[in-house]
Amino acid sequence: MSSVPKASPVESVNKRKWVHLTIVGVSLTIFGLWLGLTPGGLLGKADAIGYSVCHRIDLRSFHLGDRPLPLCARCTGMYLGAILALTFHAVRKPRAGRYPPRPLMIIFALFGLIWAIDGINSVLYLFPSAPSLYQPSNTLRLITGTLVGVALATLIYPVFNQSMWREWKPVPVLQSVGELTLLIILAAILVMAVVSGNVLILYPLALLSSVSVMVLLTLVYGTLLVTVIRRDNQADTWGDLILPLGLGFIAAVLQIALVSAGRFLLTGEGGLYL
Fold first, then answer.
1. How much is the pLDDT for 27?
2. H-helix segments, the chain
């Protein structure tokens, strides 16, 4: 019985190169189509992203002048908190692949509980006859959203590293209360920046919140992809992540487009973005 000849190392490298180029090309094409079909201007693009993941109720949003931010107060906090935490962890502990110790996980659970209580209270407040614990505010929504965003990103980050890197580091992404305190201080500064209402500060934060949506969706879909096809722990360099992150980005754009289209067909709001 004749054996199937194996591809030479050069052939394997060339094949991988063409696959990467194809993924990059498809990603850029889809992104270009999305740019062409979404409203003009950077804030228009940010609104299109926010429209797919957030209710965008005007009264529950901070405003850039007369214009509401792309995400409501709670979602603004969640996604800004998440991108802050991802950046914090990537700078301090690249490739860290362990969860924080149990005491910190309990604190994160408390963040989630506070977020849920504030969310339920906000919903109840929509109905005049329903009981509520307190009068909700956008500042509270922003704070609780930021805390949950920090927690979610801190859980997503080690999963991503465990799944992607061949040599991920078996160290906790957060080790101590002191490290968490530093992260929360940075989150508090972020909250104060949003609450300040300063246009020069809010404009970049508005764009960053929508970018964070794309980043998180790309990371999640990319991680799911390598897990499903059993190609985890294959990356040695960032170049090796072109395939999973490129496909994750494509999935993120498609999700945004499909959710936006479904919402448009059901409510007539927004537009058919892609």
1. 73
2. 9-37, 42-53, 73-92, 102-124, 138-164, 177-195, 199-228, 242-267
Alpha carbon of residue 17 to chain centroid: 28
Query: Hey, what are 209's tokens?
Result: 């919140």
Question: What is the C-alpha separation between 46 and 207, in angstroms, rounded?
Answer: 6
CA dihedral of 36, 25, 87, 52, whole degrees rounded to 10: 40
- Name every residue whose Cβ is closer than 8 Å to that of residue 248 and which is 6 or more positions away in sequence: 217, 218, 219, 220, 221, 222, 223, 224, 225
How many Cβ atoms are within 10 Å of 7's Cβ, its own excluded? Answer: 11
The reported pLDDT for the residue numbered 1 is 46
CB 125 within 8 A of CB 138: no
User: CA 73, CA 136: separation in Å to the nearest integer?
Assistant: 11
- Assigned token pair, 70: 């792309």
pTM of the model: 0.86
Q: If pLDDT is split at 50, 70 and 90, which confidence band does 17 have?
A: low
Query: What is the arithmetic mean of pLDDT over 258-268?
Result: 75
* Confidence class for position 6, pLDDT limits 50, 70, 90: low
Q: Rounded to 5 degrees, what angle do the CA atoms 267, 269, 270 make?
A: 140
Alpha-carbon distance of 116 to 132, in angstroms, equals: 13
Among 257, 222, 262, 256, residue whose Cα is nearest residue 242: 222
Tell which residue, 124, 110, 120, has the closest CA to residue 141.
Answer: 120
Sign of the C-alpha dihedral computed for residues 4, 9, 11 and 17 taken in this order: positive
Q: Are 70 and 50 in contact (CB under 8 A)?
A: yes
Q: What is the pLDDT of residues 50-74, one digit of tens each?
A: 888 898 888 899 998 888 999 999 9
Show me where the domains of the chain are located: 64-267
Q: How far apart are CA 15 and CA 273, in angstroms?
A: 34
